[in-house]
Specification:
Blueprint (H helix, E strand, L loop, with lengths): L2 H11 L4 E4 L2 H8 L7 E4 L4 E5 L4 H7 L4 E4 L7 H12 L3 E5 L5 H10 L4 E5 L2 H6 L4 H21 L9 H14 L4 E2 L4 E4 L20 E6 L1 E3 L2 E2 L2 E6 L5 H20 L6 H14 L11 E3 L6 E5 L12 E4 L2 E4 L3 E4 L2 E6 L2 E4 L11
Bound molecules: manganese (II) ion.
The site of manganese (II) ion (MN) has 4 residues, from loops.
């Protein structure tokens, strides 16, 4: 079944006869369009791409299966164009992405529609996107390889005297040099006591001997993201650093072994969480175990304490437990993996042995 057929099946299962998409990743998935700020109108009969002058030519080139319609404020506004097209397509119940559309846009569109009822929906595209095709897996694999190469290239630069920001700059330069269109999200480089901040923004802090340095980053390749975290120690390793690292590593490896179709996100989360709890650090692993990765860095399925999502072959997820001790430091180890019929395939290649650099 093609992507569009899967989406149309879900549209009709939701009792709708049309769907309006606004989220870039969803639009790219269905149409191949690599730009932004555009709109897709889908029904069983017709596929319409709505955009403005900035993207009209690009849309015509990238989306040959769509009727490309250009709107231009104020003469032919976006909402007028949507109204005109929904009437032409005979759409009575039009789904829109309730967790993405702003209230302002919703108001404009719902006021413009005449014979069409806007219906808030969630997860139609995200559900289809969560099971990857082999060609998508290959793109995430490539992104993961680029990230591995970039990290290898900067390992020698991690030493006392350099700042987090300098390492961030070198890392992102290497990502692009190795073929990424860019980082898949703003890279995290957190050293010393700052490594206990799970989402630290790289700072001017100068790295010192005996620091943990945590790197959380990924590459974007042809739209697809990778995500990995490695924590290294600079110069001299303490007993406690070794202990914390090995607990996180054990938690991460236990969870990797437990990945298989049929397991719920929350049960997989629990596998890693139990290792950390049993070691006495249960209070220091505050975030979920992982998340889906694809055209977006965070997507379905989520792998967290609450997640009822059942893993399926073709899901790409991260496995990233951590322990964060305030004012002391933290460790996270993260791989991007594919759920396969028989378990999991790890896309991240870089070693997880504790490196003292
Ligand atoms: Mn992640």
């Amino acid at each position: 079944m093609s992507r569009i057929e899967k989406v149309l099946e879900r549209i009709s299962a939701a009792g709708l006869d049309g769907l309006l998409l606004m989220k870039d990743a969803n639009i790219r998935y269905v149409s191949g369009f690599t730009g932004s700020e555009s709109y897709l109108l889908l029904s069983a009969e017709k596929k319409v791409f709505i955009t403005d002058s900035r993207y009209t030519e690009q849309a015509e080139q990238e989306c040959p299966d769509f009727e490309v319609v250009r709107y231009q404020n104020p003469h032919r506004s976006l909402e007028e164009t949507i109204k005109e097209k929904t009437l032409e397509m005979g759409i009575k119940k039009l789904g829109f992405e309730k967790d993405y559309v702003t209230y302002e846009v919703y108001e404009k569109i719902s006021q413009a529609l005449v014979e069409t009822e806007p219906v808030p929906v969630s997860g139609i595209l995200e559900g289809v996107r969560s099971c990857k095709e082999e060609k998508e897996i290959a793109l995430v694999q490539k992104a993961a390889q680029i990230a591995d190469q970039a990290f290898k290239a900067i390992i020698g630069l991690i030493k006392a005297g350099v700042t987090e920001q300098e390492l961030e700059t070198e890392l992102e330069y290497e990502l692009k040099k190795q073929g990424a269109s860019g980082p898949s999200f703003p890279s995290i480089v957190a050293s010393g006591p700052r490594s206990s901040l799970p989402h630290a923004i790289p700072s001017q802090r100068v790295i010192q001997k005996g620091d943990y340095v945590l790197f959380d980053f990924g590459a974007r390749f042809e739209g697809y993201c990778s995500d990995m975290t490695r924590t290294v120690v600079v110069g001299e390793l303490s007993v406690k650093q070794q202990e914390i690292y090995q607990i996180v590593k054990k938690a991460q490896e236990s969870a990797l072994k437990a990945v298989q179709p049929g397991i719920k996100g929350k049960d997989l989360d629990k596998v890693a969480r139990m290792v950390i709890e049993d070691a006495g650090y249960g209070g220091y692993f505050g975030h979920g175990l992982g998340h889906g990765v694809g055209l977006e860095i965070h997507e379905e399925p989520s792998v967290s304490v609450k997640s009822e999502k059942i893993l399926k072959p073709g899901n790409i997820i991260t496995i990233e437990p951590g322990i964060y001790l305030p004012d002391w430091g933290g460790v996270r180890i993260e791989d991007t993996v594919v759920v396969r019929a028989e378990g999991c395939e790890i896309l991240t290649g870089f070693t997880k042995e504790l490196l003292v650099v």
